[in-house]
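pinging the channel bc i need a second pair of eyes. not urgent but kinda urgent?? the chain im working w is below, pasted from the shared doc
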Amino acid sequence: MKNIFVSSIEKYSGKSAVIIALGQILHEKGLKVGYFKPFGVNTIRIGDQLVDEDAYNTANVLNTGDDMEDVCPVKLDRPYADFVRAAPDPEDLKRRVTDAYKRISEGKDVVLVEGAVDYKTGKGLGISDLDVSRALGLNVLMVVKYTNDFVLDEILAAKELFGERLEFVLFNQLVGYKKVHVKDIAERLLKREGIGMIGTMPYDPLLAGLFVTELGDALKGKWLVKPPEDVIIEDFLIGAMSPQAALKYLRRVRKAVLITGGDRADLQNLALETGNINCLLLTGNLEPPRTMLGKAEEKGVPVIVVADDTLKTVQKVEEVFGKAGIKGDVKLKRIKELVEQCVDLERLVGHNKK
């Protein structure tokens, strides 16, 4: 079985989710799975260790047991321009990557390799997905979020660079007409270019959602009412209208967070009455009346207050939703089900037999 390099043409395409699902499935088949991410840019500190957040979460979920310094050997610890200026020779960086990969591969039946933000990131350092896939001798599975029809051109442009190494494409987060469109047009176009399409995965609100504690932590908000349980938020609604105008939107959403000013007790009470709001996110560092908080506590709806105004808070929430990770048993189960149902695993994994 050959190892698999999972890349993308843009950020937040679902590489980590697909790798986690593949890792679970291969593990159940009795294989010893390794995980490797050559270049991490989404870095955080856990204790005194600098780690790539996605790599850290994925390695823990897959329980690979490898040293995190080997799992992700090159990590941004400063702005990218400064990192490039101070970085060692590209050959030294590439050697660091290949040495770590060898250690990760020891004793493994298969290693799932995750690319950077997109296949171009790291080119200035000589460790882009294109560079690393060549150095490690790996073929590429491109996970593509079908944001618009022009992604087909982006795939073909990537094909010119990767050549035969770009072996498979998996379309992710498809909605509406795109499900049929991809099957009828994209598959035929890719086949003509020698690229296999191994599946199409639908947009799933559960996977795109956030646990309410993730949202609170990411926004560094203050809990006015703590969640009785860590529920998932699948959508958000901006409360900047009259209660009459807001009612139809509140009735439509499910498992949503209402973002509104802390002084909008009218909207807050209305949201609690509809029962479709799983969290109140109050802006402007304004706290509502105690009666409203008591009502929220009674209904088990958490309340968070932040200092930012509503516009800035919405921007931050959009960013947090874009980076929603695969955490918790319910998400792990769902992504595994989707990959099993929607991906031609025999073609992907069977094709990679020794």
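so Residues 90-105 form the longest helix (16 residues). and Residues 38 and 97 are 6 Å apart (CA to CA). — does that match what u expected or am i reading it wrong
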